[in-house]
From TrEMBL:
Coiled coil: none annotated. Belongs to the TRAFAC class TrmE-Era-EngA-EngB-Septin-like GTPase superfamily. TrmE GTPase family. It is found in: Cytoplasm. Its EC number is 3.6.-.-. Residues 198-361 form the TrmE-type G domain. This is tRNA modification GTPase MnmE. Homodimer. Heterotetramer of two MnmE and two MnmG subunits. GTP binds at residues 208-213, 227-233, 252-255, 320-323. Exhibits a very high intrinsic GTPase hydrolysis rate. Involved in the addition of a carboxymethylaminomethyl (cmnm) group at the wobble position (U34) of certain tRNAs, forming tRNA-cmnm(5)s(2)U34. It comes from Alloalcanivorax profundimaris. The gene is mnmE.
Length: 438
């Protein structure tokens, strides 16, 4: 079957030009013949008419369901275009639904996420978002912020009593409650993004430190080539694995070395582009190497990888080859985010796996309340930062004006999630990533 969907005020007129002038009952299948402008029948099938505003896009919508096949569908689309329609842009149906208030932005995004879902867990999460689970939680936060703002603004209007008003009025308690709640939503959003995109981990370190071996150990099979000759891994190697249901995208950077070769330079440039988008850097160190400064990345990376130091990615360190150095496997006794292990024997690997899941905020399978994207997480983090700043202002100066400003900033950040407040270029970026016809 092939479906052509028309949306807009001319949908009905265009349809009648194809099937002849006849009465259509809303949301009811009608059998019809679809004719080209010369009157020749292209295909026959069903017509469904959804009058505005009770349709997916909120506009008049018609679905023409034919037998499908590229030739027939092309002819059907051409006949519609001849009557004044134009092909939809990527995501345009969803975008119109959003613009006509049929759904908010997280729901529109969830449609794309549902279609693109790679696992049942991510599909389930996307469906929850589509049904409004994420929006509801964000809107609840916004509602509480509005209440707080009303209160604080009122206090500012009565300067003589402002300080009492703010200190006695339970504002601090309310603010703390909102902060806790926003933190919980952020944790769910992190999980929602994780099941969708996974954690992207860049593995770096000196030649022979054991990067490929560690990748293989994490992956549980021979994905990367392990040899004793330094510089074996020529290209950037990607491997997608799962840690107890959490997708983990591994990038091995062994191919990053200084090279006069133009082709190789281009490969290295692309590798850095990908690395910039990663979530975490995993630096592998041979634990037999004595005297390295664990807090100085330039000491731990070969010169060709030292650019990674400037990337501001959170860092996990692995002291590998514990079986040779005699260090006891597990979390490092006094260095945070540092793990002693043996990629060869697997000792200490479990602690690293747990750490990676914890650092990513993974809560386990079946725990996804909605799907989320990086932009949602950024917005929630901004809102939380503004709220924390407001709490400090209140604490330090009982300053209503400053608190009001922070509350306003937090509300704006949250409204960007649902699209109640959006920049136009944001909409363009979101909907252009959809497939055509959605
Ligand atoms: P890379 O260059 O950082 O990717 O290092 P490789 O993974 O290719 O490993 C270099 C060499 O160290 C290989 O001979 C590995 O077998 C060896 N190796 C890696 N990890 C361990 C380990 O934990 N213990 C021991 N004994 N050898 C290891
Ligand atoms: Zn390697």
């Amino acid at each position: 079957m092939g479906v052509v969907r028309l949306s807009g005020p001319d949908a009905g007129r265009i349809t009648r030009a194809l099937i002849g002038d006849r009465e259509l009952t809303p949301r009811t299948a009608h059998f019809a013949r679809f004719r080209d402008p010369a009157g020749e029948v292209i295909d026959e099938g069903l017509v469904l008419w959804f009058p505005a505003p009770g349709s997916f896009t909120g506009e008049e919508v018609v679905e023409l369901q034919g037998h499908g096949g590229p030739v027939i569908l092309d002819a059907l689309v051409a006949a519609c275009v001849h009557q004044g329609a134009r092909p939809a842009r990527a995501g345009e149906f969803s975008q119109r639904a959003f613009l006509n208030d049929k759904m908010d932005l997280t729901q529109a995004e969830a449609i794309a996420d549902l279609i693109d879902a790679g696992t049942r867990e991510s599909a389930r999460a996307a469906l929850h978002s589509l049904q409004g689970a994420f929006s509801r939680e964000v809107n609840e936060l916004v509602e509480q912020l509005i209440q707080l703002r009303i209160y604080v603004e009122a206090a500012i209007d009565f300067p003589e009593e402002e300080i009492d008003f703010l200190s006695e009025g339970g504002v601090a308690d309310d603010l703390n409650r909102v902060i806790d709640q926003a933190g919980a939503v952020l944790a769910s959003a992190r999980q929602g993004r994780l099941v969708r995109e996974g954690l992207t981990l860049v593995i770096a370190g000196k030649p022979n430190a054991g990067k490929s071996s560690l990748m293989n150990a994490l992956a549980g099979h021979e994905a990367a080539i392990v040899t004793e000759v330094a510089g074996t891994t020529r290209d950037v190697l990607r491997e997608a694995i799962q840690l107890d249901g959490m997708p983990l995208n591994l990038i091995d950077t062994a191919g990053l070395r200084e090279s006069p070769d133009r082709v190789e330079q281009e490969g290295i440039r692309r590798a850095f582009e990908e690395i910039r988008k990663a979530d975490r850097l995993l630096v592998v160190i041979d634990s037999q190497e004595a005297g390295v400064n664990l807090n100085d990345l330039t000491d731990l990376l070969p010169s060709s990888q030292q650019e990674l130091d400037g990337l501001d990615l959170p860092v996990t360190r692995v002291l590998n080859k514990a079986d040779l150095s005699g260090l006891s496997p597990g979390p490092h006794p006094n260095q945070p985010d540092t793990f002693v292990l043996s990629a060869a024997t697997g000792q200490g690997l479990l602690a690293l796996r747990d750490h990676l899941k914890g650092a990513a905020g993974y809560q386990g399978t079946g725990q996804s309340r909605f799907s989320a994207r990086r932009r949602h997480i950024t917005a929630l983090e901004q809102a939380l930062a503004a709220l924390a700043k407001g709490r400090d202002q209140l604490h330090a100066h009982a300053a209503g004006e400053l608190l009001a400003e922070d509350l306003r900033a937090a509300q704006h950040a949250l409204e960007e999630i649902t699209g109640a407040f959006t920049a136009d270029d944001l909409l363009g970026r979101i909907f252009s990533s959809f497939c055509i016809g959605k």
